[in-house]
Amino acid sequence: MNNKPQYVSRQGLEDLRAELDELVNVRRAEVAARIQEAKEHGDISENAEYEDAKNEQAFIEGRIQGLSALIKNAVIIDEHTSTTHVQIGSTVELQGTDGPETYTIVGSAEAAPAEGRISNESPVGRALLGRKKGDKVKVSVPAGDQVYTILTIS
Q1: Tens digit of each residue's pLDDT (9 = 90 or more) over 17-59
Q2: Neighbour-count burial for 33-50, b at 16+ CB within 10 Å, e otherwise
Q3: pTM for the full predicted model
Q4: According to a count of CB atoms within 10 Å of the terminal CB, is the N or C end of the chain lower?
């Protein structure tokens, strides 16, 4: 089992706990009822509804395990981040070749690049951690090397 710390915001942890609660107390029972109902239709070897319900059950149980491990290893991101250097929870404005970009450094569980939240484990996130305003940062990404200048840290 992976015991690596999972960095999440206070709100992110609440969301994960709510999802886990929903899966354990609602969805699990719904799927069990679907399986029981499908069994009552007779031969389960050629029963598509039964197969579908069993697949959903496997997905739900896997998600429950994943969420449980994530919550167990959760480390709350400090909401009072430094403005002198980049850390998890920092919002960083960068100047790149494509113009200014703004990212918030979050844990992998909350990463949503399209919304400007990048993981501390992503190439850009890793390269920015510990850097200061004015630093030039070279990042190797699939499209090639990018150079960013840190404009602000908040």
Answers
A1: 999 999 999 999 999 999 999 888 877 777 888 999 999 999 9
A2: ebbeebeeeeeeeeeeeb
A3: 0.76
A4: N
Phi, then psi, of 133 in degrees rounded to 5: -55, 135
Confidence (pLDDT) at 77: 86
**The CATH number of the domain covering residues in 6-76:** 1.10.287.180
How far CA 45 is from CA of 24, 32, 50, 122, in Å, comes to: 28, 18, 9, 44
Question: How far apart are the C-alpha atoms of 131 and 120, rounded to whole Å?
Answer: 13
> What pLDDT, in 10s, does the model give residues 84-100?
899 999 999 999 888 99
Strand partners of residue 101 = 94
Report DSSP state, residue 93. Answer: E
CATH number of the domain at 91-153, please?
Answer: 3.10.50.30
| In the block, residue with structure tokens 């969805």 | 27
CA distance to 17, 63, 104, 108, 118, per residue, from 112 (Å): 19, 19, 10, 9, 6
Which two tokens mark 47? 């029963």
Question: CA nearest 5: which of 81, 63, 52, 75?
Answer: 75
Domain boundaries, the chain: 6-76, 91-153
